[in-house]
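Researcher: Here's the sequence for the chain we discussed earlier.
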Amino acid sequence: MLCGMDYIPTLAYLPAATPAGLGGWLVNAAAVLAIVYIVVKLINTFRRRPPIDATFATKTEFAGCRAESQARALKTESKIEEMEHILRKDITGLRRESEERGERVHKRVDEVLASTSRLEGRIEGMLRRD
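Model: Thanks. This is the structure I predict for it:
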C-alpha cells in the first residue's frame, strides 16, 4: 500500500530525458501554442472593437443633440427673419429714394421744357420781325 511518507515522488525517480523525447515535447508544445494563437486571433476578428455603447448614442445623448440642433435651427431662423426685415426696410427705402429721384428728374425736365418753349417763342418772334 502506498500512503504517507513511504511514497514521495521526487525527481530522482523520474527517468532521464532523452534528446528525442525532449524534441518531441517541444514540437507538441509549439503546435498547441500555434493552435491557441489562431483561435484567439479568430475570436478577436469577430469581436466588436468598440463596444456598442461607444459606437451609438444613448437616448439621453440623442435627446441632448436633438435639443441642441433645434436650438441652433431656431437661432438661424430668427437671424434669417431679422435679415429679411432689414432687407425689406432697405428695399422700401430704396424705392422711396428712387421715386424721389424720378420726381426730381421729372421736375427738371419740365423746367427744361418750359425754358425751351420760351426760347422757341422768342425765336419765332424774332423771325417774324425780320
